[in-house]
């Protein structure tokens, strides 16, 4: 092909001249060995190349080189292929049980959607009034006023919508934790074999870091609010199981024998003797489960769970201290508010001279006016 037909063609002489001009180190080596010239150009300091020093440590595969066994370092390589076992198991689980886990999402999605639509649909002032009256009913006027002030602060800092999303996630998670945890705890409290089998499982669940639960849940259920509720339930259910079991086992034996002597059936024994006496311990478990749900909902923002946790995560990712602080303050206020409400549920009203819950607070006040 002629030069007029190939405008990009250059002669060899100009190439040699250009390559010599582009060599700032003044090398006079022959161009016959292109590999050597490329190596010398990429190493202008004249150091001998070292394969080990130039290896990319991030991409190096430690399993490629087999090291000889040494008693001084016997754990240089893994003996037990736990990593491959777990990967194989999770792959098998996803391939065979993903439809089942997708079916589990349906009731959780329905519950979460209903609660969130209610909290987001009701006007903010109405929700503040409802929670204030609830605090007054369960405890006293001081708690009701504190809850009203706390909710006004959450709305005032611009975190109301995210707080309602987080609250709906927490309420849904706690609801399913109670549905699963209280019957399981009662079963463990009345069956020693079940207690011996389930207790080690609860130990493992409570010692497992929260982030470990995220990976299998994402593979099985995907990302979003519903998978976040599922992982929150798994992480938060052990305390209510443990303390329900403890409360049932702490019922005095003489009271159980007296109930048997009066001919109480197992159902009557449970609902009229064991559960009332174990209620304070069970409510302590509910309180711990609630706090764990709130903490896990924040951690689950890493798998696109909305609410205050996502606000904090975005603030950290953008180095926006203000946004992260707003989310953090709202989380703290919400946690204190829910903690005080659940503690009030577990208190003994008879110490305040009240036998039934409806004899105090705004409902008790209305009943007094009605009697007059």
UniProtKB/TrEMBL annotation:
Subcellular location: Cell membrane
Subcellular location, principal: membrane
Membrane topology value: Multi-pass membrane protein
InterPro entries recorded: MetI-like, MetI-like_sf
Database matches in PROSITE patterns: ABC_TM1
Record has Ion transport as a keyword: no
Transmembrane segments: 118-136, 143-161, 167-189, 210-235, 289-312, 319-338
Single Gene Ontology BP annotation: glycine betaine transport
Gene Ontology terms for molecular function: amine transmembrane transporter activity; carnitine transmembrane transporter activity
SUPFAM superfamilies in the record: MetI-like
Comp. bias intervals (Low complexity): 27-43
Span of domain ABC transmembrane type-1: 163-342
Family: Belongs to the binding-protein-dependent transport system permease family.
Protein name per Swiss-Prot or TrEMBL: Glycine betaine/choline transport system permease protein OusW
Provenance organism: BD1-7 clade bacterium
């Amino acid at each position: 092909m002629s030069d007029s037909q190939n405008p990009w063609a250059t002669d060899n002489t100009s190439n040699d001249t250009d390559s010599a001009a582009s060599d700032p180190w003044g090398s006079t080596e022959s161009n016959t060995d292109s590999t050597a010239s490329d190596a010398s150009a990429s190493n202008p300091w004249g150091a001998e190349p070292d394969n080990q020093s130039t290896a990319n440590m991030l991409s190096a595969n430690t399993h490629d080189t087999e090291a000889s066994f040494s008693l001084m370092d016997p754990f240089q390589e893994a003996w037990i292929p736990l990593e491959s076992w777990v990967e194989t198991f999770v792959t098998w689980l996803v391939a065979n049980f993903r439809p089942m886990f997708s079916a589990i999402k349906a009731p959780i999605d329905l519950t979460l959607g209903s609660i969130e639509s209610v909290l987001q649909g009701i006007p903010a002032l109405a929700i503040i009034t409802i929670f204030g009256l609830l605090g007054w009913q369960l405890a006293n006027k001081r708690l009701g006023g504190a809850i009203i002030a706390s909710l006004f602060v959450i709305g005032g800092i611009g975190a109301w919508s995210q707080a309602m999303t987080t609250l709906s996630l927490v309420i849904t998670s706690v609801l399913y934790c109670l549905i699963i945890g209280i019957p399981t705890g009662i079963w463990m409290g009345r069956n020693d074999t079940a207690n011996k089998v389930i207790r080690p499982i609860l130990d493992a669940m409570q010692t497992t870091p929260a982030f470990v639960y995220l990976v299998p849940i994402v593979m099985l259920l995907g990302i979003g609010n519903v998978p976040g509720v599922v992982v929150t339930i798994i992480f938060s259910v052990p305390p209510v199981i443990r303390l329900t079991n403890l409360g049932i086992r702490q019922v005095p034996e003489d009271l159980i024998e007296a109930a048997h002597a009066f001919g109480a059936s197992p159902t009557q024994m449970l609902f009229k003797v064991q559960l009332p006496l174990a209620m304070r311990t069970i409510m302590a478990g509910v309180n711990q489960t609630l706090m764990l749900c709130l903490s896990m909902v924040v951690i689950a923002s890493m798998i696109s769970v909305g609410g205050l946790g996502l606000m904090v995560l975005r603030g950290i990712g953008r180095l926006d201290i203000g946004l992260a602080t707003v989310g953090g303050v709202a989380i703290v206020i919400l946690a204190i508010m829910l903690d005080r409400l659940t503690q009030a549920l577990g208190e003994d009203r008879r110490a305040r001279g009240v036998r039934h819950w409806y004899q105090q607070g705004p409902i008790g006040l209305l009943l007094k006016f009605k009697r007059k």
